[in-house]
Task: structure prediction
Amino acid sequence: MSDPIVLIPARLASTRLPDKPLADIGGEPMIVHVMRRAEEAGIGPVAVATDAPAIAEAVTRAGGRAVMTRPDHQSGSDRIHEALESLDPEGRHDIVVNVQGDLPTIDPRVITASTRPLVDPAVDIATLAAVITREEERTEPSVVKAIGSEIAPGHLRALYFTRATAPYGEGPLLHHIGLYTYRRAALARFVALPPSPLERRERLEQLRAVEAGMRIDIVVVDDVPLGVDTPHDLERARAMLAPRR
Result:
C-alpha cells in the first residue's frame, strides 16, 4: 500500500433517526465524532462525502474536509467513488477506506486493521467481523453473518455473507461489520457492476463483489462498534462518549 485515503459517506435521509449525522453528542455532531476517529487512525487524509450542505458545513466548521456529491446515489460506495474522483482525479490514492458515518464510537485501531489484508495484492476488498457472543444475534436477520475460510488467526478469506444463521453446526458465528477497505481499481470495478441476484435477494451489497469473483478478506476484531440507527442508540453513544469524571 502506498497512499490510503479515508472517506465517510453521510446523508440526512434517515427514517428512524432524522438528520442523524448532525445529532448532538457531547456538543459536536455525530459525523464530526466519526471524522475524529478516522483521523486518529492516522492512515491517511480523511474527508466526508455528502449531498447535504448542512453536513458539509458542520464538518468544515470542525476543521475537517467535506466533498459535495450528487443526491441520487444508491449506496455509500457510489458516493465515495464520486468523492474520490473529485478529490484525487490524478489517482494518487490507491487504497480507499469507507467508514460509515454512524459509527461515532469506532476504535481507530479497527480502522487501521482493515487495511492490513491489502498488503496481499490478490485481495480486492477487506472488511471486518467480530465473534457473536449474544445468543439472540445468532438468529437475528439484521445481524449479518460473515462466512470465511481461515488464512491465519483472525484473518479469513470471505466465502459468503448472509442474514441467515450460518454456517450450520457447532462453532462460532461472525457478526459482519460494514466497514470496507478497497483497492482503488476494485472500487471502480465494483460501482460499475449491476446489482447481483444474491445481493438483491439478501439485500447485502457486498454480495455483488462475491458474485463477480472479487476477493474479500475479513479481519476479526474484538467487538462490534455501536451503529447509531435509533434514539436509543444515540443515547448509548452519548453515554459512551461522555467525559469521564
Observations:
- Helices lie at 30-41, 53-61, 76-87, 108-113, 184-192, 197-202, 206-211, 231-241.
- The first helix runs from residue 30 to 41.
- The first strand starts at residue 4 and ends at 10.
- The chain has two domains: 1-102, 107-224.
